[in-house]
Amino acid sequence: MSIHKEKEVVGIKDSQLLVRMMAFAKPYWKMIVLCIALAFLIVVADLARPYLMKMAIDEHINGINKPMAAMPSAEADRLEKLGDPVVYGDYAYVRVSEEEKAAVGELAMRKQILETDGAYWMIDGWLPAKQEEIKLVRENGAAVIESGTERFAAKELDEAAVKQFRKQDYTGFISLGLFFLLAVVGAAVLNYVQSNLLQYTGQSIIFAIRQKLFEHLSRMSMSYFDRNPVGRLVVRVTQDTESLNQMYSQVVVNLVKDVIVVIGIVVIMLQMSVKLSLLAFAVLPVLLLFTMIYRHIVRNAQRRSRIILARLNSFLAENLSGIRITQLFVREERQWEQFDKLNKENYKAGMVGTIVNSIFHPAIGMLGNVSIALLLWYGGVKVIDGAVTFGVVYAFTHYIRQFFQPLMSLAEKYNQIQTAMVGAERIFDMLDEKPSIVDAAKPVSLPKQVRGEIAFENVWFAYNDEDWVLKDVSFRITPGQTVAFVGATGAGKSSIIQLINRFYDVQKGSIKLDGIDIRDIPLGELRYTISIVQQDVFLFTGDIASNIRLNNKAITDEQVNEAIRMVHMEEFIARQPQGMRTALGERGVTLSLGQRQLLSFARAIAFRPQILILDEATSNIDTETELVVQDALHNISRGRTTLIVAHRLSTIQHADQIIVMHKGKVREMGNHFQLLAQRGSYYRLFELQYKEQRGMQSAK
Asked: Which end of the chain has less Cβ packing within 10 Å, N or C?
């Protein structure tokens, strides 16, 4: 299977993902609870505003038309339980709601003010709840109000009387205005505080997740990186975690807020009018159907988009790293075609989600408008019939808009949740994959001073299944010995080096260091004991000194300078503008291959290993520099076990022992002269290189 093809993540339920995601948020539970509490207060402030408007309309704008209870002014205190009485003439009046009418009974007179024929009239009685056309008639000089079959004696009120009855409305507007302003300002301040707390919490959680991912990746075995391109891993550590950021900083608390808003609106609407509420909620089954379809499409679209993006990043990382080869062989157009194909796939995958969202969000808005249209039709009729007040219908229109706003927000958050779920699937899939190279259950520590005896005992090794790279390999390296491995390409030389460091584990047999199976030695101790200088040198972005000590503060500047002197790079560094602090380009691009190789030697020397491994380490160094390095290696290898993998036999003739590999097996063993005397594989390799060298000299 291609490494660019991701395996499908299956068997993980959304509930399991949510539980694991919330585990990262657990250390910040107090902050999240505080944000939820703030969300509750914000909801209260938001829901209070339409209700205050309803009160302004019903209690004050239309308040003068409400039924009233009246008693002689001397007994006004008996009305205080119903509200603040208004004294006019010899009587005190107090407005009563529909629920309070029964409490009035026969103890008080019934009064009501109506506006008709351009004047205000006080009638003796209450108009019926279902109002009909009001008509003013005069009988024997007295005014009478007729409403259907009901007749009420009426008295015209002058302007002063109207102002007296309106006085409580003016003061009520001031109180309601202050409460409305308080709700607006309070919600704004609480939103500001909550937003900052959420961002802090979300960023803190994402920081912890990225830390955990990087730590996990740094412990993964080489076989994991063989299967996963760098671009894919970068997407998971950066963009997949960023998708979770929205989940933690926005969705979790605001989802609770939106749910509280919906519940609060439902409760308030049901309290004001059950029939109007049921009418408004009639569109919810259609919304539920839309949501189910939307969920399925968006989840698949998000998953595909992430996979394509990982492929695109892998392609970019690989091709930008090899841009020299691309330009050298004039393959820019072909690489552009491959990039164009991946880019188009990424565009199409992104557009699926965009199109679905562009349909789903307006659909929810349309359902909200349908609900408002039904309300205006039915509610308007009920206002005319007197079944509900205009204030209730006005408040309902606001509450329906507020009701569908969180539903639209929930839809958007649902999209974010699906994005986060896809990211979480990939993140937890990475975290669930355990390193194949781990410390033993009961590790055995190495002594402080390692002797350096290495033994391969019947070792079989394969990178894939049973495609054996090493076959029944056995040899022993005594402490302080310099041993070289030679052989044709693919003979298994570099695999031996990889196994000694436990980048991979053997399938059969064992490798021992000072008599201890290396699988029983803690990885940190094993790798700290060994330094490797490879043919392909990797230098990090930074200065020369940091690339030698690799941020190991235990290595002093003097030790760094000593390593530089041992590889004779002091003159080169002296010519640099900032000496040891001279910044290197990405992967040391400003240095020649030979200079990079020398820096890798200095790095190995600075760490003062007890075992030194050179894997084709002198292949990029010219002959003159090689003589200098060889002299340095003689010094640092003295008293240390040294392993050398080389193609040029001239560089390993001084080795105490040379092991000749052929097709994964040990073919010959001995020193340079012993192997020449055997006239076997080593002799043929030597003769071949000797003839090549003579041919090159003759050509010169």
From this structure: C
Tens of pLDDT along 318-364?
Answer: 777 677 677 766 777 878 888 888 888 888 877 877 787 777 777 77
Q: Three-state SS for 462?
A: strand
DSSP conformation letters of 64-82: GGSEEEEEEGGGGGGGGGG
What residues are paired with 486 via a beta bridge? 660
**Quick one: average pLDDT of 304-308?**
76
Nearest to 248 by CA among 26, 42, 38, 25: 25
What are the structure tokens assigned to 110, written together? 């019934």
Gyration radius of the chain over CA positions: 43
Backbone angles phi, psi at 401, to 5 degrees: -60, -45
Structural contact between residues 516 and 446, judged by C-beta atoms closer than 8 angstroms: yes
Per residue in 270-297, pLDDT tens? 877 777 777 777 777 777 777 777 767 7
The C-alpha atoms of residue 565 and residue 596 are separated, in whole angstroms, by: 15
Examine the pLDDT at 511 and tell me if it is beyond 90. yes
Q: How far is 370 from 282, CA to CA, in rounded Å?
A: 10
- Which one, of 445, 448, 450, lies nearest residue 639 by Cα? 450
- What is the number of other CB atoms lying within 10 angstroms of the CB of residue 489? 7
- Of 544, 530, 542, 471, the closest CA to residue 506 belongs to 471
What backbone torsions phi and psi does residue 435 show, to the nearest 5 degrees?
-60, 140
* Extended beta strands in 5-118, E state: 67-72, 86-88, 91-95, 109-116
Task: Answer positive or negative: Cα dihedral of 523, 524, 525, 526.
Answer: positive
In 3-state terms, what secondary structure has residue 451? coil
DSSP 3-state of 203? helix
* DSSP codes, 649-679: GGGSTT-SEEEEEETTEEEEEE-HHHHHHHT
Tell me the per-residue pLDDT of 392-443, one tens digit each, with 9 for 90 and over: 777 777 777 777 777 666 666 766 777 777 778 888 888 888 888 888 888 8
Distance CA 630, CA 628 (A): 5
- Identify whether the C-beta of residue 655 lies closer than 8 Å to the C-beta of residue 641: no
For the record, the structure tokens of 492 come out as: 């298994």
How far is 100 from 457, CA to CA, in rounded Å?
A: 98
